[in-house]
From TrEMBL:
Keywords: Nucleotidyltransferase, RNA-directed DNA polymerase, Transferase
Family annotation (Pfam families): zf-RVT
Protein known as: Reverse transcriptase domain, Reverse transcriptase zinc-binding domain protein
Organism: Artemisia annua (Sweet wormwood)
Domain Reverse transcriptase zinc-binding: 25-63
GO-annotated molecular function: RNA-directed DNA polymerase activity
Claim: Nucleotidyltransferase is one of the keywords in the record: yes
Keyword Protein biosynthesis set for record: no
């Protein structure tokens, strides 16, 4: 089953274009509304897509750190609002635009992976370890970017080099 955001997301490029697949918890709830599946990350709240990105206390810690790094502290922790905010911003080759998309994609990928590892392999990582994985993934992607030398680019690269 596939769900799509209800608003225009044409500016989102790859992230917006990707359709979100309903989580295991969301699907189970649809068929068995009386069964609440627990979020494997916080082990406190019902598991759902909305909860995972990024209302879950575990995911929120990662998202808060990432929002600071892209200077978007004011962004919401709610998936639909985040998608709306990002869709309202320019989607181009500007370094800030690239960083916003890299950060969101990496957060989604690594949090989803951590969730699945906990369910299927019983492996657990602290949020700080997942954060480290996200940062090194983004650094790796930045290293492969071809960028023009500018004050903004230098500032962004300097910031991401620091721990
Ligand atoms: Zn949770």
């Amino acid at each position: 089953m596939v769900i799509k955001p209800t608003f225009q997301s044409t500016k989102l490029g790859k992230i917006g274009g990707s359709e979100m697949i309903m989580s295991h918890g969301d699907r189970l709830l649809k068929w068995y509304p009386e069964k609440q599946v627990q979020c494997p990350l916080c082990e406190e709240c019902p598991d759902s897509h909305e909860h995972l990105f990024f209302e879950c206390p575990y995911s929120t810690l990662i998202w808060q750190d990432m929002k600071k790094r892209i200077k978007k502290d004011e962004w919401s922790d709610k998936w639909k609002e985040i998608l709306f905010d990002i869709s309202e911003m320019p989607c181009n080759n500007n370094i800030m635009s690239i960083m916003r998309r890299l950060v969101l994609a990496a957060c989604v990928y690594y949090i989803w992976t951590e969730r699945n590892k906990r369910i299927f392999s019983n492996e657990k990582k602290d949020y700080k370890e997942v954060l480290k994985d996200i940062i090194s993934n983004i650094r790796f992607k930045m290293a492969s970017l071809t960028v023009k030398d500018s004050n903004m680019v230098n500032e962004v690269y300097k910031q991401w080099k620091s721990p």
